[in-house]
Amino acid sequence: MSPKDIVHCPYNRAHFMLRKKLQQHIMKCREIYKDEVELLVCPFNKAHHIPAPEFHQHTKSCEDRKIIMHYQYSQAAELNEETKHEKIESEENWDDTSVDDYNPQVYASQANIVRDASGMFPAQRKAFIKQERLRQLGEESDDVKPPKATKTHDAARAKPYDR
User: Fold this and answer.
1) Same domain, 63 and 17
2) φ, ψ for residue 8 (rounded to 5)?
3) Among residues 55, 72, 89, which one ends one of the domains?
4) Partners of 51 in beta bridges
5) Burial class (CB in 10 A: 0-12, 13-18, 19+), 146
6) Are residues 60 and 117 in the same domain?
7) Total count of domains within the chain
8) What beta strand segments (E) does 2-159 contain?
């Protein structure tokens, strides 16, 4: 880490941080010191917050100004015979709309994936689970029943106050 990476907060000179953390820090300090310190934001770099008396001088000498000015005043590239080329023709037609729209529910019902029955009423959920079992295990699995719950040790024990 070099000394160039460490910067100080424009709102409180006692705050030092990494340059990459400056934007986050400025947002916090601007809220804290909004009534005490009035700073203007540089039009060339939003991380530059400058006091009003120094703002005019800063906009003239801002190091990021040359980047913006370069793009504002640079000329567009000229087309000449070397840079021009023939129109490229293709056999493909990407405007063909005869393909059906993608429906994720249709795809999921046909693919070998596990679907969830959440958000359904109990009767709908039961029918959905039966249909899914048939879909995944095949037609012969209609008579396959889910395993019955076995009695636990506590359920087999007699209750002390049975009448």
Assistant:
1) yes
2) -110, 155
3) 72
4) 39
5) exposed
6) no
7) 2
8) 6-8, 16-18, 39-41, 49-51
Helix H, strand E, coil C: the string for the chain is: CCHHHEEECCCCCCCEEEHHHHHHHHHHHHHHCCCCCCEEECCCCCCCEEEHHHHHHHHHHCCCHHHHHHHHHCCCCCCCCCCCCCCCCCCCCCCCCCCCCCCHHHHHHHCCCCCCCCCCCHHHHHHHHHHHHHHHHCHHHHHCCCCCCCCCHHHHCCCCCCC
pTM over 0.70: no
Banded model confidence at residue 56, pLDDT cuts 50, 70, 90: very high
Q: What domain range includes position 111? A: 104-139
Nearest residue to 52 (alpha-carbon basis) of 14, 12, 10: 10
d(C-alpha 100, C-alpha 97), whole Å: 8
Over 80: is that where the pLDDT of 155 sits? no
